[in-house]
Amino acid sequence: MQEIFSENKFKKILDYLGIKKKDKLLVNSNTLNLMIKHKDKALPNKILDILIERITPEGTLLFPTYSWDFCNGSRYDSLKTRSTAGTLSNLSLKNKNFVRSKNPIYSFSVFGKDKNKIANLSHYSCFGLDSPFGYLIKNKGKNLFIDLDYKDALTFVHVAEESAGVNYRYHKIFTGKYTNKNRIKKIENFEMYVRKKDKASATFIDKKFDNKLLKKKALKKIKNDNSIFSVVDVQTAYNLMHEDIKHNKGLIRPILWENRDIYINICNKKVDCSLNEQ
């Protein structure tokens, strides 16, 4: 019989991964899979409460609350637009102790000491170093991944691509209707470093990048009940990705979907072949 999710077990996983009070922590998760596995609809609420308790108001806790509707011409409402980044992120948006950052495409729901600082960051480019991504890079942030291979959701790779100036992406301006938290409506412009469709369908992070992080003690992983939990040192990961891209080392590279099977064969196991699709 499948073991019911245990709050104590999750706390021990956080202990093993080194997640502690006062951390600056971004969380990416696949709680739907855990809910199905453990037959527990309340599981995301339990995880959210544990993370808030662990980080405390002296730390800073972030969830991605991304939405791409603004890119398609839909109005963005800071208080009403739902996140496409999963259950935990939408739960955090409903929590009065969280505030949402300004960017209508790559926003974050934030709790803790620096929540207002992050929420007030006015960054024109989604992946700029003046964004919440940059805040985590500059302030020794951590990225926690719950039942998810970090390579499938390490959005910092796009920050590295932008700062390195890759030839398979370009800056594109999106204009749309924007309603801020004070209910003021405006027409706003934001920029994103998007793929050139003839050169890249996705960004590929080679499984060998794990070894780079492990050598720097910037990655820690644990498997529990066939679920993967890991934490990445954001600053170290960003620096390694930026260096890899600038010097064409090949661990971070673009692929076209027609070449996807080639990379799966290179990886040997499909599960190890990670494609970041943003």
What does the model show?
This protein starts with 6 loop residues before the first helix and ends with a strand. The protein has a seven-stranded mixed sheet. Strands 3-7-8 form a three-stranded mixed sheet. Mean pLDDT is 89; it is low at 263-278. It has one domain. The radius of gyration is 18 Å and the shape is globular. It is of the alpha+beta class and 278 residues long. It is built from ten helices and 13 strands.
Mean pLDDT score: 89
Assign an overall shape.
globular
Provide the structure class.
alpha+beta
Name the beta content range. 25-35%
Number of strands: 13
What percent of the residues sit in helical stretches (DSSP H or I)?
A: 25-40%
> Can you count the helices?
10
Relevant terms:
278 residues, alpha+beta, seven-stranded mixed beta sheet, three-stranded mixed beta sheet, 13 strands, 32% helix, 26% strand, disordered C terminus
Provide a compact summary of the structure.
The protein is of the alpha+beta class.
List the helices and strands and how they pair.
Layout: H1 7-17, E1 24-29, H2 31-38, H3 43-55, E2 60-64, E3 76-77, H4 87-94, E4 99-100, E5 108-112, H5 115-119, H6 132-138, E6 142-146, H7 156-164, E7 169-179, E8 185-195, E9 202-205, H8 209-215, E10 219-224, E11 227-233, H9 234-246, E12 252-255, H10 260-267, E13 274-276
Parallel strand pairs: 1-2, 1-6, 3-7
Antiparallel strand pairs: 2-5, 4-5, 6-11, 7-8, 9-12, 9-13, 10-11
